[in-house]
Amino acid sequence: MNTMVLELDVRMLPPREKHPVIFMKFDNLKDGELMIIVNDHDPKPLYYQLMAERGNIFEWDYLKDGPDVWRIKITKKGKTIGEIAAEDVRKVKVFMKYGIDFCCGGNKPLKEACTEKGLDVGEVEKALQEIENKKYELNFNNMPLHELTKYIIEKHHRYIKECQDALLGLSEKIAERHGNDHPELLKVNDCLKELIYELNMHLMKEENILFPYIETISINRHAGGGLGMIENPIKAMMHEHDVAGDLIKTIRIQSNQYIAPEDACNSYKALYKLIKEFDDDLMVHIHLENNILFPRAIQMEKAILK
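and the corresponding structure tokens:
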């Protein structure tokens, strides 16, 4: 590893150039490397922008805290879970196996996520490497955005639409039949109904508003129109993803991670199996949008509007 420490004095740079230069230098750092920023005021806004655009992949330490000079040590911790999954979507199976949130909670480095779960990071890294060594043909990072939106609609949106009636019907039936002995089923049923309702509203917004705009900038290389900057509707969609993620987490807790009790009938077990499949598909669905489609769409729009 390079032992040279980059010291970047930005005091003489024009204000509009400071953050772009710092971001460029940060992106060039390897995992574990650091740089020192020297400025004439507290660069706290940089911290928030770096956290928002790069995620929780750095450590921020004040070496000197004013009053005339500020020296900040920024250490790069490594790729986030979301970035790892975005580079190779097959790796989401590893994260699912170990219960690592790669979707709404994917804004953490692998080591931190493993520590929080009490996992051996070496074991998880080995499993990820085994996936990487296998041949991979479908690359969502290189897929044109208009093809990626169609893939999401055809695979994940269609899945929600096609399975929701059977899933809700079975959930309602099991809650009525076994809710007295297992009151957690009532909470599962309520959360599932709310989740399906929220998702249906969400899909309508994506299919009728956001995705057509993304397809326009992808095919015609034309930006602008009724949406304004695409970051705003994307933030709204990601907030709705968080809402869906919270509902799924509640369902997981109430269902004991989809493990049916010993006295569960076959229909009871089938319900948990179906919800688990729904959960797995939804996590991949949200990952493709949060970590691949949305960042690429924002980047493309900015390039077009330059």
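(Above: one complete record from the training split.) The radius of gyration is 22 Å.
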